[in-house]
Amino acid sequence: MARPPVAVTCGEPAGIGPEIAVKAWEVLGTDLPFVWIGDYHHLPKGTSVIPLDHAQDAAAASKHGLPVLYSQFEGERTYGVANPAHAAEVIDAIDRAVWLCKVGAASSIVTGPINKKALKDGADFAHPGHTEFLAELGGVEDVVMMLAGPNLRVVPATIHIALAEVPHALTSEGLETCLRITHAGLRSDFGIEAPRIAVAGLNPHAGEGGTMGLEDGALIAPVVDKLRAEGWEISGPLPADTMFHEAARAGYDAAVCMYHDQALIPIKTLDFDRGVNVTLGLPFVRTSPDHGTAFDIAGKGIADPTSMIEAIKLADQMARMREAALA
């Protein structure tokens, strides 16, 4: 029996998601079969489409075209303009992918980029984004966002909040939970038996003994010390400005940072096209290309599929690692 395929959701039809899915199939072909969930009328003209009734048939179908689990969307699709009438079907594609994983018909999920405003306007989507919705579908409360590339893995302890809110949002309990999920994910999904984690400080020079802020010594250091006492290979709080050069990166498997840009600037500098968004802590594997809908270039045939390709490859690798760990 063929291995269950990766399930790739359509994302926002007016963006580049459908286009880069086709380009990914052209590159990966039968080497790494996946099934695309969406309305095949939204795919680029001329795409060879193989409609499926069952995701498990994707391996055989991928020899002849892009395997698709069809979902009929209401309303017109105009490139670059999100249509709220599509919201329910976009959400359903995500739900369907999760169900496929739960019943063993898909090995993992790759989500195409969505437009959150269109989902809210069209279907009262109450979640800040994919991650929170997937956590609800997976029945878990705490998940972690990791950005992974060939040269670096980073985890922001706080994500989409204003910089002024970060010191108030950081808590010992929240940081410890983030670190524990990261540690477990590195073991189960990346096959790293004894993960090495570097923890960035919040303030310049990690507070420099309290002269540039007290959070590093009062909040971050005790959590790091606690986990080190449990036998973890963990360091920090470290000055963020010296954490990401080549020699420093060789000393850890993932860096946990205190806020969004502290984590994302280095990985997007090092691995802009090949970065992948990973959600750790879910009962299924989920990745996503590390970019948005790119409305400005949608439909022009110039979107770079590299991040989508890397997301599919990483989802497959993580699923295999997780299966091996459970064997």
From TrEMBL:
Pfam families attached to this UniProt entry: PdxA (PF04166)
Keyword Protein biosynthesis annotated: no
Molecular function (Gene Ontology), one example: NAD binding
Superkingdom in the source lineage: Bacteria
SUPFAM superfamilies: Isocitrate/Isopropylmalate dehydrogenase-like
E.C. no: 1.1.1.262
Listed cofactors: Zn(2+); Mg(2+); Co(2+)
Chemical reaction(s) catalysed: 4-(phosphooxy)-L-threonine + NAD(+) = 3-amino-2-oxopropyl phosphate + CO2 + NADH
Chain residues that bind substrate: H130, T131, K268, N277, R286
Cross-referenced InterPro entries: PdxA, PdxA_fam
Enzyme class: oxidoreductase
Keywords for this protein: Cobalt, Cytoplasm, Magnesium, Metal-binding, NAD, NADP, Oxidoreductase, Pyridoxine biosynthesis, Zinc
UniProt-listed GO biological process terms: pyridoxal phosphate biosynthetic process; pyridoxine biosynthetic process
GO cellular component: cytoplasm
Function description: Catalyzes the NAD(P)-dependent oxidation of 4-(phosphooxy)-L-threonine (HTP) into 2-amino-3-oxo-4-(phosphooxy)butyric acid which spontaneously decarboxylates to form 3-amino-2-oxopropyl phosphate (AHAP).
Something else known: The active site is located at the dimer interface.
Subunit structure: Homodimer.
Official protein name in the record: 4-hydroxythreonine-4-phosphate dehydrogenase
Name of encoding gene: pdxA
